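Predict the 3D structure for this chain.
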Amino acid sequence: MQPLFTIHAGEYLVGSHIEQHLRDPNGDKVNVWVPSKDTGIDLLVTDKTNKKTTSLQVKFSKDFLLTHGRPEYRDKLLSCGWWRLNRDNIGKSPTDIGCSYCAGAGF
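Done. Predicted structure below.
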């Protein structure tokens, strides 16, 4: 059976952080929406009146600092993720903002 709806951990964590911490210029909380269709937009953020919107694409990675990081960097970095970025794909993205989230062992 195919799931009707899924959201990955990175999308959930970024959306949750936005809901808890971000405010619009007037100091009001923003709304976070998850699209019901996969169009390349992972989250939609709106002002409290739902009139101004910003779309986000979230890329998630686990922390590779302890398992793959060089020892000389471990005391200087909090975490290290692994992404393969493609300039053409980034330019074609329908989103306003791209966000990379790395789930570190200490977070």
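The helical segments are 9-21, 65-68, 71-74, 87-92.
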